[in-house]
UniProtKB/TrEMBL annotation:
It is an enzyme of class 2 (transferase). Pathway: Isoprenoid biosynthesis; isopentenyl diphosphate biosynthesis via mevalonate pathway; isopentenyl diphosphate from (R)-mevalonate: step 1/3. GO terms for cellular component: cytosol. Its main location: cytoplasm. It comes from the Archaea. Residues 87-174 form the GHMP kinase N-terminal domain. Catalyzes the phosphorylation of (R)-mevalonate (MVA) to (R)-mevalonate 5-phosphate (MVAP). Functions in the mevalonate (MVA) pathway leading to isopentenyl diphosphate (IPP), a key precursor for the biosynthesis of isoprenoid compounds such as archaeal membrane lipids. This is Mevalonate kinase. Homodimer. ATP binds at residues 114-124. InterPro entries: Galactokinase (IPR000705), GalKase_N (IPR019539), GHMP_kinase_C_dom (IPR013750), GHMP_kinase_C_sf (IPR036554), GHMP_kinase_N_dom (IPR006204), GHMP_knse_ATP-bd_CS (IPR006203), Mev_gal_kin (IPR006205), Mevalonate_kinase_arc (IPR022937). Its cofactor is Mg(2+).
Length: 339
């Protein structure tokens, strides 16, 4: 057979991370940074994975892949092992969906989403892998089933720590509203995101636990979480009123930006920011961004700013704490076929 190729986007939180854990709504948005997965079936039931940019030097691993023989990865780098695990569970989901338990694959993974930076790189790899493998087996899935299977795959690798938001947003694309287990696509104008990455990553489990204990101890911390929910609802109505087919007008960007600033302040109060994240946020604001906030679990990792000009990108490039910066428009497409 010929190769089957799928890509899937990463994501940022426009609003609502952390508060979403307590049932408040959140709005993750897919961004034009993608993982691309090429799949070709094999004569045997083995799985061979090449991932030229999932680690510094890239790697290739081949294993039996028949359920009993798991990938034997003799690489000490955690991200590489995690990368293989994600592809392994994705392959299992594809075999199960297509009722082809013995299907073997050659898989190539490429990604321009920074790894472990809270941008949903693992969700993108899993979604694109399941999509390409099921299509290769002649059993394409609709985006909802794809999202559900990708969620199960992430859940397995992350020991039950996965959120539905990442895989859903990545499968359907655009802006998403998450509340509890309910995920829905919502209309949004073309948002001019700029992402700054400090090269690090926070410990999501610890950060979530920290917010939980503040919330248990202080009513005003619980109120802070509820205030995040209030600003998310406000942000949703701003998005709903904007023309989704167009670039957002200044007043829409200004209000979304103000809400992002507010959200960052509340997250900072809840203890999940860091000096590097704050410095990048302030560099973006001083460069004239409409607003800026940390995105994801915090503690380190990425910020997201709104700026349709090049000013924020340039300012972040000259910010010592910022290791990588890129512009990333809202991605309209979720998972998609690549030729
Ligand atoms: C992490 O990307 C987002 C959090 O809200 C945790 C979660 O929703 O699982 C901090």
């Amino acid at each position: 057979s010929n190769m089957t190729v799928s890509s899937a986007p990463g994501k940022v939180y426009l609003f609502g991370e952390h508060a979403v854990v307590y049932g408040e709504p959140a709005v993750p948005c897919a961004i034009e940074r993608r993982a691309t997965v090429s799949v070709e079936t094999r004569e045997d039931s083995r799985v061979r994975v090449s991932a030229p940019d999932l680690s510094l030097d890239g790697f290739t691993v081949e294993y039996g892949g028949n359920g009993d023989e798991r990938p034997d990865v003799n690489v000490s780098e955690g991200l590489v092992e995690a990368g293989i695990e994600y592809i392994d569970v994705a392959v299992e989901q594809a075999r199960d969906a297509a009722n082809a338990p013995n299907a073997g694959f050659d898989v190539t993974v490429e990604s321009d989403i920074p790894l472990g930076a809270g941008l949903g790189s693992s969700a993108a790899v899993v979604v694109a892998s399941i999509d390409a493998a099921t299509r290769e087996l002649g059993h394409p899935l609709d985006p909802e089933e794809l999202a559900a299977r990708a969620y199960r795959a992430e859940y397995e690798v992350q020991d039950g720590q996965a959120s539905r938001a990442d895989t859903f947003c990545c499968a359907v694309g655009g802006a998403v509203r998450v509340e509890g287990d309910d995920c829905q696509h919502i209309d949004a104008p073309s948002l001019p995101f700029v992402v700054g990455f400090d090269g690090g990553a926070g410990d999501t489990g610890k950060l979530v636990a920290g917010v939980r204990s503040l919330r248990d101890e202080y009513d005003f911390a619980a109120d802070t979480v509820e205030s995040i929910g209030d600003l998310v609802r406000r942000g949703e109505s701003v998005l709903a009123e904007a023309d989704p087919t167009d670039h957002p007008p200044e007043d829409v960007l200004a209000e979304l930006g103000r809400l992002m600033d507010f959200d960052h302040g509340l997250l900072e109060a809840l203890g999940v920011s860091s000096r590097t994240l704050d410095n990048m946020v302030w560099a973006a604001r001083e460069a004239g961004a409409h607003g800026a906030k940390l995105t994801g679990a915090g503690g380190g990792g990425c910020i997201v700013a709104l700026d349709e000009t090049a000013e924020t990108e340039t300012a972040l490039r000259y910010t010592a704490e910022c290791e990588d910066v890129f512009r990333a428009e809202l991605a309209r497409d979720g998972v998609r076929v690549e030729d």
